Amino acid sequence: VGDTNIKIMKNKLFGIELGTVSLLVAFYWFVSFGRSVLPTHLINQGLTIPQIFFGSFLIIVGQLVLLFIIGFKRRAYSLKLVWTIAICLYALFFILSGFRITSLGQYYFASLVAGVASCLFYLFYNIRYFSEQKEGKTYSHTAQFFNILIIISLIAPFLAGFVGAINFSYVSVLTLVFFLLALVVARSLQVL
User: Fold this and answer.
1) For residue 7, what pLDDT band results from cuts at 50, 70 and 90?
2) Which of 26, 43, 121, 192 could form a disulfide with 185 if both were Cys (CB 3.0 to 4.6 A apart)?
3) Dist. CA 114–CA 34, nearest whole Å
4) How many angstroms separate the Cα of 17 from the Cα of each of 13, 14, 145?
């Protein structure tokens, strides 16, 4: 029994399964790194600040649409499938908005896709993450969750900007690498 407890503790980080934390880090790094230099690229593609803001508004609309649809569907969802779809939808967002934008509709559609992807990932991730906590540890696990996001939000944009200053194509290549990494982590996660 003692060996089993040690093995379980080694697979946890601050009381949360290490795979669950790894998924958050991989997904948020992929999204944060990829989105960091996107506003500059959008302006270079000819979009105006109000158009970019409207695209940001459409991200929220995409989230609300997904919540509305899921709210009427009472069924169990495969977490691996949901996370895989969310990661792939974010990749589609980067493809539609990170390369040549041929129309404003393309950017607006990409923004809706990003909203759906974000909501799809975090809705089911939060259920998984907070269901793994021990009773009475809600505040420390919430702090851990947001500290991970803050740390990545400080490092990834800086790194993406540095790499983008060398060559913007490198940002695209690294975003692809981080997409593949997030996909591997999501697909390999042990779902209880």
Assistant:
1) very low
2) 26
3) 12
4) 6, 8, 12
pLDDT of residue 2: 40
95-133 residue pLDDT tens? 888 788 888 999 999 999 999 998 888 888 877 776 666
Burial zone of 171 (CB within 10 Å; 0-12 exposed, 13-18 middle, 19+ buried): buried
Q: Give the span between the Cα atoms of 59 and 115, in whole angstroms.
A: 4
> Could you identify the residue written with the tokens 């919540």?
67
CA–CA dist 127, 84 (Å, integer): 16
Residue 107 and residue 97 in contact, taking contact as beta carbons nearer than 8 Å: yes
**How far apart, in whole angstroms, are the C-alpha atoms of residue 43 and residue 49?**
8
Under the banding of pLDDT at 50, 70 and 90, the label for residue 159 is: very high
For residues 166 and 56, what is the distance between their CA atoms, to the nearest angstrom?
A: 27
Dist. CA 29–CA 87, nearest whole Å: 12
- Residues 39/45/49/55 CA torsion (nearest 10 deg): -70
Range list of H helices, 15-167 = 18-36, 38-44, 49-72, 79-98, 104-131, 138-166
